[in-house]
Amino acid sequence: RSLIEVNSESWRQRYLSALPDYGDADNVVDKQPLNFRSIGLIRVLFPDSPILFMRRHAVDVGLSIFRHKFAKSWPCAHHLADIGHYYGIHERMFRYWVSRPEVALTVVDYSHLVRNPDTAIHALLASSGLDFEPACLQPHKTRRQVATFSSVQVQNPVTTRYINRSAPYAQLLQPLRDELLRAGVEVC
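Above: the chain sequence. Below: its structure as tokens.
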């Protein structure tokens, strides 16, 4: 037996016990940005869990990362070229996992989601095995705690405002664009 097989149940329990108390919640969303590095392990530890992969324009993602104050322990989040390089690694891993149907990833297109939230949210929930509730179309009205950089954004209705947000900064973002191109990532 492999190291993962021997330890999977204890690793699973350690992960679950480290979660904050969410009362009687049946589901937890873990949107930690570096989860893409652990898709294989996630699939082993939580074989029935849906894995959603949000696709967004790479330069917009890079700008979003750059404008937030990530801790120093995130060396890939402080310089535009580093962000582009790391996004290239992310893209290669995404391509690998999406080519493996047995892993069962659901790819969600960010632009489609914010332009057609009703359609996209119904599809996203169906792929996750979750029932639709009208509140799903009004996430800004929830009173749940959000402990991520999007905590302010989720207080507002779903909007297309963040599509192509990087355009006005194109010249300043050139180091990011150059590194993305070097990594084979589309930047149009």
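The chain has seven helices and two strands.
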